[in-house]
């Protein structure tokens, strides 16, 4: 039947939302289509049984890549925060020493310098973790299983 042979009354342009699709899915996972008064199908959808179930404890490749991206973003955020803390501590320590609140030989100056050194050491560790995660991500994207091969081919 050609489109010009169809009258506007015969065309069903009813929008069926997700709620009606959910109502049409039976308990066993099969799809029961919505029927209008003329017994015409108004919704075409795939049965949930056609979609493979996700195995628990087994990450799919998309989940693994998403997990690595998330870990890399967290490592990046931690590194940025530690860098800001270290920079602020350096400025505060320099200003307090410059204005004569304490001398460089006193205990508060030693504590501030120790905090600056600790934040710098943590920053270096975080950058190392970031690069390890980035290498893992690149190995995963290129399907390289052994890190030795990644070092050779890059």
Question: Overview of this structure, please?
Answer:
- By secondary structure, the chain is mainly alpha-helical.
- It has 2 domains: 1-51, no CATH class; 61-153.
- 56% of the residues lie in helices and 0% in strands.
- It contains 4 helices and no strands.
- It has helices at 18-24, 61-98, 107-141, 147-153.
- Helix 2 (61-98) packs antiparallel against helix 3 (107-141).
- It is elongated.
Topology:
Layout: H1 18-24, H2 61-98, H3 107-141, H4 147-153
Helix pairs in contact: 2-3
Q: Indicate the multimeric state.
A: single chain
The dominant shape is elongated
- The helix-and-strand class reads mainly alpha
When the domains are counted, the total is: 2
Strand-residue proportion:
under 5%
Helical stretch tally: 4
Q: State Rg.
A: 31 Å
* Topology pattern, helix = H, strand = E: HHHH
Average pLDDT number: 75
Distance, first to last CA: 60 Å
The main pleated sheet reads as:
none
Query: Can you give the helix content as a percent range?
Result: 55-70%
Give a count of the beta strands, DSSP E runs of length 2 or more: 0
List low-pLDDT spans: 11-28, 43-47
Write a brief caption for the model.
The protein is mainly alpha-helical and 154 residues long.
Provide tags for this entry:
mainly alpha; 2 domains; 4 helices; 0% strand; elongated
């Amino acid at each position: 039947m050609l489109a010009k042979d169809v009258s506007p009354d015969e065309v069903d342009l009813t929008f069926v939302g997700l709620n009606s699709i959910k109502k049409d899915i039976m308990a066993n996972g099969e799809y029961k289509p919505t029927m209008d008064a003329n017994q015409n199908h108004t919704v075409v959808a795939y049965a949930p049984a056609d979609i493979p179930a996700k195995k628990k404890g087994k990450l799919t490749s998309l989940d693994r890549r998403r997990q690595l991206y998330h870990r890399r973003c967290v490592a990046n955020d931690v590194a940025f925060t530690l860098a800001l803390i270290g920079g602020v501590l350096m400025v505060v320590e320099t200003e307090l020493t410059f204005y004569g609140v304490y001398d460089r030989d006193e205990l508060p100056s030693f504590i501030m310098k120790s905090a600056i050194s600790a934040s710098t050491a943590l920053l270096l560790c975080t950058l190392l973790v970031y690069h390890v995660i980035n290498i893992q991500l690149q190995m995963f994207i290129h399907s390289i299983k052994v890190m030795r091969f990644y070092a050779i081919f890059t």
